[in-house]
Amino acid sequence: MKILIIVGIYPPDIGGPASFVPKIANLYSDNSHEVTVVCLTDVQSEDVEKYKVVRISRHQNLLIRWLKTIFIILKNGRDANLLFVNGLPMESYIANLFLRKKVIRKIVGDWAWERGMNKKLINESFDDFQNKKHGLHLEVAKFSRGWTAKKAKLVITPSQHLSTIVHKWGVKKKNLKVIYNGTEIYKSTSSEIVPSQEPFTFLTVGRIAPWKNIPTIVNALKIYKNEGGRFKYYIVGSGPDKDYLKELVADCGLQNEIEFTGQLKKPELLNYYKKASVYIQASSYEGLPHVILEAISHNLSIISTPIGGTNEILLGGKNGWVWDLKNNFKPEQDQLIKIINTISNNPRDDQIKKHNAFNYLNQNFDEEKNFKEYLEIVNI
For 197-217, how does the pLDDT look when each residue is reduced to its tens digit (9 = 90+)? Predict the structure, then answer.
């Protein structure tokens, strides 16, 4: 079978789709499928993969890029049996008006909500956004995200929560399937679980965007330092809020404690998982964050907001420390300090949560097991 995978972000970009697509492309290639990946990119590079990679530069006129993307999907999808859409949904939909191919969509979030947050058109939670009326710009975006999703033969989400949301967009339940994200399980970890060591080394990985609420973490750590706490905090990734965040770190006098690594390739990222003791996520929304799975696999304590599919990992605090959202939207810095101090004073409780998390990871999020479902769905 010939499979065309379409995605907005791809290595060296970071983020869920950028981690997922190379793995799924290799999986299909290793199982005798002919795979082509069409993606956006900041830099052109020579890809040496088992499959073909077609890169489209992000840095061009938006209309020209949009038309070019549709043309390239048409060109590469002409002989394909299946379009696997993990990004660029509208371009894929328009191209498929002519191609008329079977489409599988993977939806990991709501780009209409993200657009509203990035453009500062809204300041509300992911779930509230689904139920409220907005200006014309966002209502058009909301219509298009639902319209394109309804045209897929099958829509995959990484969490039950997101599946429920996408059903509200108009996708029929029979066309929805939940496949949890998976990660490589470092099987030696389960026998090595020990309490987190102080001073803590904190880690956050992902796009530096408004809904990630990283400034809240920085402000909390400023207070933690003033109260005598010692720590190192690594922020891995890039994004629209990076310059603002660097200024905030300087204003807080935390240049020695907080390090921005930029985007990292997997071997470099693994080194930071090994350095860290606590993973912190402050997001207002996540589908089901792959980085938390990786952090658990590397024996990190987890502090996270219980948003989207994240609580399908945390299980209400059984597998990690829950950092509550105020008004269902943003966490408060005072509670983060309390959680850090609780971990310090209750290492046994932290150890139990890590042990629970690792066992749950092994049972439900083993990449090798979960990826078998992707082999089955191509024959729908």
Answer: 679 999 999 989 999 999 999
